[in-house]
Amino acid sequence: MTPSGTPSGTPSGPPPGTPSGLSGARVLVLRPEARAHRLLSALADAGATGQAVAVTAVRPPSDPASFDSAVLALVAGDYDWVGFTSVNAVEVVVERAQALGLPRVVPADTRVAVVGPATAASAHALGLPVDLVPTGPGSAAALAAVWPATARAESVLLPQSELAGDALAESLTAKGFRVVRVGAYGVDPVPLPATVVADLAGGRFDAVVLTAGSVVRALAGTAPAAGTVVVTLGEPTAQAARRAGLAPVVADRPTDDGLMAALTAALEQRSRR
User: What average pLDDT does the segment 232-254 reach?
Assistant: First the structure.
């Protein structure tokens, strides 16, 4: 199995006086501020102004009884694997286990797979082990590619967003696993403030950061002005952005450092045109 990597540290900006492609830029980060503080700090260090705005809200699953049953089965050791495909999935499973008064979340003999470094960092922070994480940009396809096949029909629990696709479950089934998917949370759109819509359409943001396909869907009908750099956290989000008619730059690492590098390169390239 591929070992988990060390979570990336807090991004750091250039030394004082060092020119930056982000200097003076205004960047819209479509992510809740509580999850964007590291990126906002890095933008400020680079001389940019970042604004975090949430365009989605996580809500309890539509079938809470099924979710509770899945969490109870996980804690009881009924699964050989649990696969987390988002930070939200890690958080809601741990929170629900705690709310149910369960002493642990993942038994010692249950292996944990995560979709990428951000999800691995969240799992570690909440006290969960990580046994499998793909290297490079995190995605369900990358996780499926490194997940070893089984010859004994091992069981896998996938607690996912109700909007999650079937690709990972289908790939694991093809590798011989018995896969149980459960809706762990829903994602609802949150309207952008009118001032942000006006600034985005009017070209007053130099760049916008998209962090998930649900964020792209929530942006429907609010396209950035021509010339605004669009950066996505990974290829799945980029695919959703392309379907929405955008031309994104994809961060080569699904981390804040990766986003900073992509933003800097894209804005420097734009300034040379």
Answer: 88
